[in-house]
Design goal:
CATH topology: Arp2/3 complex 21 kDa subunit ARPC3
Number of helices: 7
Strand content: under 5%
Number of strands: 4
Structural class: mainly alpha
Helix content: 55-70%
Oligomer: single chain
Radius of gyration: 20 Å
Protein backbone atom coordinates (compact mmCIF):
# COMPACT_ATOMS: atom_id res chain seq x y z
CA UNK A 1 0.00 0.00 0.00
CA UNK A 2 1.27 3.47 -0.77
CA UNK A 3 -1.46 5.74 0.48
CA UNK A 4 -3.07 6.73 3.76
CA UNK A 5 -5.95 4.89 5.42
CA UNK A 6 -6.77 7.11 8.38
CA UNK A 7 -10.06 8.57 9.63
CA UNK A 8 -11.14 12.18 9.38
CA UNK A 9 -9.79 14.64 11.93
CA UNK A 10 -6.23 13.31 11.96
CA UNK A 11 -4.45 15.29 9.25
CA UNK A 12 -4.24 19.06 9.83
CA UNK A 13 -6.72 21.16 7.87
CA UNK A 14 -4.11 22.86 5.69
CA UNK A 15 -2.71 19.50 4.57
CA UNK A 16 -5.90 17.69 3.61
CA UNK A 17 -7.42 20.86 2.14
CA UNK A 18 -4.33 21.33 -0.03
CA UNK A 19 -4.66 17.72 -1.12
CA UNK A 20 -8.26 18.28 -2.20
CA UNK A 21 -7.34 21.44 -4.12
CA UNK A 22 -4.51 19.74 -6.00
CA UNK A 23 -6.60 16.62 -6.65
CA UNK A 24 -9.58 18.56 -8.03
CA UNK A 25 -7.26 20.64 -10.21
CA UNK A 26 -5.68 17.46 -11.60
CA UNK A 27 -9.08 15.86 -12.25
CA UNK A 28 -10.37 19.01 -13.97
CA UNK A 29 -7.27 19.17 -16.17
CA UNK A 30 -7.50 15.46 -16.97
CA UNK A 31 -11.17 15.79 -17.90
CA UNK A 32 -10.44 18.76 -20.14
CA UNK A 33 -7.59 17.01 -21.93
CA UNK A 34 -9.64 13.85 -22.26
CA UNK A 35 -12.51 15.71 -23.92
CA UNK A 36 -10.15 17.00 -26.59
CA UNK A 37 -8.84 13.52 -27.35
CA UNK A 38 -10.73 10.64 -28.88
CA UNK A 39 -10.89 8.44 -25.81
CA UNK A 40 -14.55 7.48 -25.77
CA UNK A 41 -13.64 3.91 -26.60
CA UNK A 42 -11.54 3.79 -23.42
CA UNK A 43 -14.38 4.73 -21.06
CA UNK A 44 -15.49 1.10 -20.59
CA UNK A 45 -11.85 0.20 -19.96
CA UNK A 46 -11.70 2.96 -17.34
CA UNK A 47 -14.64 1.38 -15.51
CA UNK A 48 -13.16 -2.12 -15.63
CA UNK A 49 -9.71 -1.02 -14.46
CA UNK A 50 -11.17 1.11 -11.64
CA UNK A 51 -13.26 -1.86 -10.50
CA UNK A 52 -10.20 -4.13 -10.46
CA UNK A 53 -8.31 -1.54 -8.40
CA UNK A 54 -11.19 -1.38 -5.93
CA UNK A 55 -11.15 -5.13 -5.46
CA UNK A 56 -7.36 -5.21 -5.07
CA UNK A 57 -7.25 -2.33 -2.60
CA UNK A 58 -9.99 -3.95 -0.52
CA UNK A 59 -8.15 -7.29 -0.24
CA UNK A 60 -5.39 -7.38 2.35
CA UNK A 61 -2.38 -9.69 2.36
CA UNK A 62 -2.90 -10.36 6.05
CA UNK A 63 0.55 -11.33 7.33
CA UNK A 64 1.98 -8.16 5.79
CA UNK A 65 -0.91 -5.76 6.40
CA UNK A 66 -0.44 -4.87 2.73
CA UNK A 67 -2.84 -4.78 -0.19
CA UNK A 68 -2.29 -4.74 -3.93
CA UNK A 69 -2.76 -1.49 -5.85
CA UNK A 70 -2.62 -2.50 -9.54
CA UNK A 71 -1.80 1.15 -10.20
CA UNK A 72 0.97 0.55 -12.71
CA UNK A 73 -1.31 -1.76 -14.67
CA UNK A 74 -3.97 0.96 -14.61
CA UNK A 75 -1.50 3.62 -15.68
CA UNK A 76 -0.22 1.57 -18.60
CA UNK A 77 -3.69 0.57 -19.84
CA UNK A 78 -5.37 3.96 -19.34
CA UNK A 79 -2.58 6.44 -19.95
CA UNK A 80 -1.77 9.37 -17.62
CA UNK A 81 -4.97 11.42 -17.97
CA UNK A 82 -7.56 8.71 -17.53
CA UNK A 83 -5.38 7.31 -14.73
CA UNK A 84 -5.94 10.51 -12.72
CA UNK A 85 -9.71 10.18 -13.12
CA UNK A 86 -9.55 6.52 -12.11
CA UNK A 87 -7.48 7.38 -9.02
CA UNK A 88 -10.09 9.89 -7.83
CA UNK A 89 -12.99 7.50 -8.45
CA UNK A 90 -11.31 4.63 -6.61
CA UNK A 91 -10.22 6.71 -3.61
CA UNK A 92 -13.62 8.35 -3.28
CA UNK A 93 -15.48 5.02 -3.33
CA UNK A 94 -13.04 3.53 -0.82
CA UNK A 95 -13.68 6.49 1.49
CA UNK A 96 -17.43 5.91 1.17
CA UNK A 97 -17.04 2.35 2.45
CA UNK A 98 -14.83 3.38 5.37
CA UNK A 99 -11.42 2.68 3.85
CA UNK A 100 -10.02 5.95 5.16
CA UNK A 101 -11.71 9.28 5.74
CA UNK A 102 -13.25 11.63 3.21
CA UNK A 103 -10.78 14.39 4.06
CA UNK A 104 -7.82 12.29 2.91
CA UNK A 105 -9.32 11.52 -0.50
CA UNK A 106 -7.48 14.48 -2.00
CA UNK A 107 -4.08 13.49 -0.63
CA UNK A 108 -4.63 9.87 -1.61
CA UNK A 109 -5.71 10.86 -5.13
CA UNK A 110 -2.51 12.84 -5.58
CA UNK A 111 -0.34 9.98 -4.30
CA UNK A 112 -2.08 7.33 -6.41
CA UNK A 113 -2.03 9.59 -9.48
CA UNK A 114 1.72 10.07 -9.09
CA UNK A 115 2.11 6.30 -8.78
CA UNK A 116 0.11 5.63 -11.94
CA UNK A 117 1.76 8.33 -14.04
CA UNK A 118 5.26 7.45 -12.85
CA UNK A 119 4.64 3.76 -13.50
CA UNK A 120 3.34 4.54 -16.99
CA UNK A 121 6.29 6.85 -17.76
CA UNK A 122 8.95 4.43 -16.50
CA UNK A 123 7.29 1.52 -18.31
CA UNK A 124 7.20 3.55 -21.51
CA UNK A 125 10.86 4.46 -21.20
CA UNK A 126 11.97 0.92 -20.40
CA UNK A 127 10.00 -0.63 -23.24
CA UNK A 128 11.54 1.90 -25.60
CA UNK A 129 14.98 1.02 -24.24
CA UNK A 130 14.67 -2.75 -23.79
CA UNK A 131 12.15 -3.49 -26.51
CA UNK A 132 8.69 -5.00 -26.44
CA UNK A 133 9.98 -8.51 -25.84
CA UNK A 134 11.11 -7.39 -22.37
CA UNK A 135 7.69 -6.10 -21.38
CA UNK A 136 7.60 -8.22 -18.21
CA UNK A 137 10.92 -6.85 -16.99
CA UNK A 138 9.82 -3.32 -17.84
CA UNK A 139 6.56 -3.77 -15.93
CA UNK A 140 8.27 -5.22 -12.86
CA UNK A 141 10.94 -2.53 -12.65
CA UNK A 142 8.39 0.24 -13.24
CA UNK A 143 6.21 -1.14 -10.44
CA UNK A 144 9.02 -1.25 -7.86
CA UNK A 145 10.22 2.26 -8.73
CA UNK A 146 6.71 3.73 -8.70
CA UNK A 147 5.76 2.13 -5.37
CA UNK A 148 9.06 3.05 -3.73
CA UNK A 149 8.66 6.67 -4.81
CA UNK A 150 5.08 7.04 -3.61
CA UNK A 151 5.85 5.26 -0.34
CA UNK A 152 8.48 7.94 0.24
CA UNK A 153 5.83 10.52 -0.61
CA UNK A 154 3.53 8.87 1.95
CA UNK A 155 6.19 9.12 4.66
CA UNK A 156 6.67 12.77 3.74
CA UNK A 157 2.94 13.44 4.17
CA UNK A 158 2.99 11.78 7.59
CA UNK A 159 6.02 13.87 8.57
CA UNK A 160 4.21 17.04 7.46
CA UNK A 161 1.24 15.99 9.57
CA UNK A 162 3.49 16.01 12.62
CA UNK A 163 3.35 12.31 13.46
CA UNK A 164 1.15 11.39 16.40
CA UNK A 165 -2.08 9.60 15.44
CA UNK A 166 -1.18 9.91 11.77
CA UNK A 167 1.48 7.27 12.28
CA UNK A 168 -0.87 4.68 13.79
CA UNK A 169 -1.35 1.76 11.39
CA UNK A 170 -1.85 -1.97 11.20
CA UNK A 171 1.48 -3.79 11.01
CA UNK A 172 0.23 -7.35 10.52
CA UNK A 173 2.63 -9.84 12.08
CA UNK A 174 5.46 -7.29 12.19
CA UNK A 175 6.20 -6.10 15.72
CA UNK A 176 6.95 -2.36 15.32
CA UNK A 177 9.01 -2.43 18.50
CA UNK A 178 11.42 -5.19 17.48
CA UNK A 179 10.81 -5.17 13.69
CA UNK A 180 10.46 -8.94 13.81
CA UNK A 181 7.80 -11.05 12.09
CA UNK A 182 5.80 -13.49 14.18
CA UNK A 183 3.70 -16.52 13.29
CA UNK A 184 0.30 -15.10 12.27
CA UNK A 185 -1.47 -18.26 13.43
CA UNK A 186 0.40 -18.82 16.70
CA UNK A 187 -2.59 -17.71 18.76
CA UNK A 188 -5.33 -18.46 16.28
CA UNK A 189 -6.82 -16.45 13.43
CA UNK A 190 -8.75 -14.22 15.82
CA UNK A 191 -5.54 -12.87 17.36
CA UNK A 192 -4.54 -11.02 14.19
CA UNK A 193 -7.91 -9.36 13.68
CA UNK A 194 -8.96 -11.40 10.67
CA UNK A 195 -12.40 -11.82 12.16
CA UNK A 196 -12.69 -8.53 14.02
CA UNK A 197 -14.45 -5.39 12.86
CA UNK A 198 -12.73 -2.08 12.29
CA UNK A 199 -13.81 -0.87 15.72
CA UNK A 200 -11.64 -3.57 17.25
CA UNK A 201 -8.68 -2.24 15.33
CA UNK A 202 -8.55 1.11 17.05
CA UNK A 203 -4.84 1.76 17.60
CA UNK A 204 -3.64 1.66 21.17
CA UNK A 205 -0.69 3.61 22.58
CA UNK A 206 1.76 0.98 21.41
CA UNK A 207 0.63 1.45 17.82
CA UNK A 208 1.50 5.13 17.67
CA UNK A 209 4.95 5.25 16.09
CA UNK A 210 7.43 8.04 15.65
CA UNK A 211 7.78 9.23 12.08
CA UNK A 212 11.19 7.57 11.87
CA UNK A 213 9.96 4.19 13.07
CA UNK A 214 6.84 4.57 10.94
CA UNK A 215 9.13 4.94 7.93
CA UNK A 216 11.08 1.82 8.94
CA UNK A 217 7.85 -0.19 9.29
CA UNK A 218 6.44 1.08 6.00
CA UNK A 219 9.62 0.36 4.06
CA UNK A 220 10.01 -3.07 5.69
CA UNK A 221 6.48 -4.16 4.84
CA UNK A 222 6.39 -2.18 1.63
CA UNK A 223 9.53 -3.66 0.09
CA UNK A 224 8.01 -7.14 0.37
CA UNK A 225 4.77 -5.86 -1.11
CA UNK A 226 6.61 -4.15 -3.98
CA UNK A 227 8.14 -7.45 -5.05
CA UNK A 228 4.78 -9.25 -4.87
CA UNK A 229 3.04 -6.51 -6.83
CA UNK A 230 5.87 -6.36 -9.37
CA UNK A 231 5.49 -10.09 -10.05
CA UNK A 232 1.71 -9.76 -10.42
CA UNK A 233 2.01 -6.68 -12.63
CA UNK A 234 4.64 -8.22 -14.89
CA UNK A 235 2.56 -11.38 -15.30
CA UNK A 236 -0.64 -9.49 -16.13
CA UNK A 237 0.91 -6.95 -18.49
CA UNK A 238 2.99 -9.67 -20.13
CA UNK A 239 -0.14 -11.68 -20.82
CA UNK A 240 -2.14 -8.69 -22.07
CA UNK A 241 0.77 -7.60 -24.29
CA UNK A 242 0.74 -11.06 -25.85
CA UNK A 243 -2.99 -11.38 -26.51
CA UNK A 244 -3.99 -7.72 -26.91
CA UNK A 245 -0.80 -5.73 -27.56
CA UNK A 246 -2.73 -2.61 -28.56
CA UNK A 247 -4.04 -2.25 -25.00
CA UNK A 248 -0.51 -2.10 -23.62
CA UNK A 249 1.34 -0.21 -26.32
CA UNK A 250 -1.21 2.02 -28.07
CA UNK A 251 -0.83 5.62 -26.96
CA UNK A 252 2.19 4.82 -24.83
CA UNK A 253 5.01 3.42 -26.91
CA UNK A 254 3.33 2.71 -30.23
CA UNK A 255 5.07 4.04 -33.28
CA UNK A 256 3.31 6.32 -35.71
CA UNK A 257 2.93 3.40 -38.08
CA UNK A 258 1.06 0.26 -37.05
CA UNK A 259 3.67 -2.36 -36.33
CA UNK A 260 2.65 -5.99 -36.64
CA UNK A 261 4.07 -7.96 -33.74
CA UNK A 262 5.50 -11.43 -34.30
CA UNK A 263 2.69 -13.96 -34.16
CA UNK A 264 -0.04 -11.31 -34.54
CA UNK A 265 -1.95 -9.84 -37.45
CA UNK A 266 -2.75 -6.21 -37.90
CA UNK A 267 -6.33 -5.12 -37.37
CA UNK A 268 -8.54 -5.60 -40.37
CA UNK A 269 -6.39 -8.40 -41.82
CA UNK A 270 -7.13 -12.11 -41.64
Amino acid sequence: MSHIHIPDGVLPFWLWASGWIVALALVALAARVSRRADIRRKVPLLGVVAALMLVAMSSEIVPLAYHMNLTVIAGVLLGPWLAIIAAFIVDFILAMVGHGGVTVVGVNTVIISVEMILGWAVFRGLVGLLGRRRVRWSAGIATVLALATTTTLLVGVVALAGGGPATGRETGTLDPGTLRFGNPFSQGVYSINLLRGESARAPGPSQYLSVGRFAVVVYTLGSIGWVIEALVTSAILGYVARVRPNLVFAGAVAEARHEVLPGHHSEGRP
